[in-house]
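Below is a complete specimen:
___
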Amino acid sequence: MKKIIILFIINIIVSTSIIAQGFWPGFYRANELLSSPSAKASGMGETGVSQVHEKSFYFNPGSLGLFALENKISVSGFFKDAIYMDNLGFYNSSIAIPLQKSDKESTKFLFTIGGYYSVTKILEPIQETTRDFPNGTGIFFTPTYKNYNSTFAVGYNNSIQIGIGLTLKQLYDKLTNYSHEKTSFDFGIIVRYPIFPDLSDYKEKLYFIPSFGYSINNQEILPNLTTDGFNIVLPERKSVGISFESGLIRKFYFEADRKLISLLPSFDMSKVDNNNWLKKYGLELGVMEILSFRIGYIEEDGNTNGFSVNSQGLFAFFQKDNSYKLSRTGLNKFFTDVVSIEYSYANSELMKSYHEVVVTYAL
């Protein structure tokens, strides 16, 4: 990934220079499509193909079909641009909306829509160099790349859970006074086999969720060349991933099941175009659905780390008395059962300072 980002920066400089001087056809490689928009996944070495959370459908559109089991509408965004290699700024926002309220025991088919929006830009403006303005004496401009994505996913809920999803993507670039578009799609499937115990006795018990995912990303729909001959090359990617979540869970009085502690190791392999398969490793430790700590490793790029803090788990924890009962009225119920605010942070040698906020609203 580090090599890809370096090539991306060089690509911007070369392509903008070609355009400014009026030489056609030009091209650039849209490697910004490989930037992870999820602080959770980024803290875990950018693993996400076999995971299910509010932003995992970037890696695997099929995961959105199983996110519907959470019965939550999710909205997320960065409140500060993430920084790539001190040269690029990256912003993302997303939304995920289940189309029905599901019951984990009886609802078989799940339908979910979602979308995310990304902006990548050079942090320092580039000065135009043309025949009329040699040696960088022209106007300053900031190359900007925007990516709009819409996802529809279907889930099947039984002893085995299956999610299948499709993302349509529209890429816009703005280089000097020229702009171009590109259309592509992602497709993915995820299979999980959750093993949950009977919790009717209100005791702590072990649970397991093995999961497998496969996805293809940035597959071209329209021809390469635009009307002015400018060629946007897409980094087509294939990914496979496995994960195995386990931990302790219990049922509380008048409340949904809650995970007391969880451990999620994850492993992905991805291949961009004809390059070698890139290995990614991630590990997440969750405590009382309040705190999550993450570490990861990306082959060629090094270590990653991150954490999350969730308001819903925090409110639920402090409202419990010695018998694990809750005060179920007013604001206590609202912030425990209805609205959740989660802050996530991620960092690595390549990705500097992801700051993401996710707000969910229970259906």
Summary: The chain is about 15% helix and 50% strand.
